[in-house]
């Protein structure tokens, strides 16, 4: 209300000019917010038919992320991605720009549509989805065979475990090399191994790498609902396998 009064006073009570004044002020405020970090927000997932979408939208505070306006914005973005299947995040942002700007102006916070993912399945395959803590973490897992209950439980497991890869073979070579460098340094510093042949030292280093990376590999993890078995063992018992999964956690990789 105060902004409207200021706009009218600044433009000699010309309504059309007042509207332009408010729009210009709004753009200026958005520009000021551009340098701030938006590390709160929502991660959502939705599966429908043979496709599923995940999105992460960000704001600056958990207060705004819990607001009706921001929740509506997040749902709008999720539905847009699922229905329109944009081929890039840039295209998705363009398609949701009006809603984005409306929410940013209404909340007064920096608002970002950070990322999205689209998964497609064939008939007979199955999705499992899970949203943790009302949008803190969102997961979608794609199984080779449809199994609604197990797929949901596996999505819950992924949310809890922080899995990044399906198996060790999926770890990028650069990540493995980084871990190998650390492992070799540890082996070289271990006095008990000083007299061991280099071949033995290399084998020990490789085992250290596998152990370090296994904690992020879904198949090697202990299954959340039955820790006596690995995820790999449970899948084998069910005659199923994981094709892929996506896990979004709000703000991961961002610093407030």
The CATH superfamily label of the largest domain reads Elongation factor Ts, dimerisation domain
The sequence of SSEs as H and E is HHEEHHHHEEEHHHEEHE
Shape: globular
Mean pLDDT, rounded to whole units?
90
How large is the radius of gyration? Answer: 24 Å
The helical percent reads 40-55%
What is the number of E strands?
8
CATH names the topology of the largest domain as Tetrahydropterin Synthase, Chain A
Straight-line distance between termini: 31 Å
Oligomeric nature of the chains: single chain
Summing up helix and strand content along with how strands pair, one would put the structural category as alpha+beta
Main pleated-sheet profile: 3 strands, antiparallel
Q: Outline the low-pLDDT stretches.
A: none
Under the CATH scheme, which class of the largest domain? Answer: Alpha Beta
Structural descriptors:
alpha+beta, 2 domains, Tetrahydropterin Synthase, Chain A, 8 strands
Verbal overview:
- With 256 residues, this protein is an alpha+beta fold.
- It folds into two domains: 40-168 and 216-249, Elongation factor Ts, dimerisation domain (Tetrahydropterin Synthase, Chain A, 2-Layer Sandwich); 172-214, no CATH class.
- 48% of the residues lie in helices and 22% in strands.
- The protein is built from ten helices and eight strands.
- The chain has helices at 2-10, 15-33, 62-65, 68-84, 89-95, 97-107, 148-161, 173-189, 198-214, 231-238; strands at residues 40-48, 51-59, 112-120, 126-132, 137-143, 222-223, 226-230, 242-249.
- The strands form three sheets. It has a three-stranded antiparallel sheet.
- A hairpin with a 4-residue loop joins strand 4 (126-132) and strand 5 (137-143).
- Helix 1 crosses helix 2 and helix 4 runs antiparallel to helix 6.
- The chain starts with a helix and ends in a 7-residue tail after the last strand.
- The mean pLDDT is 90.
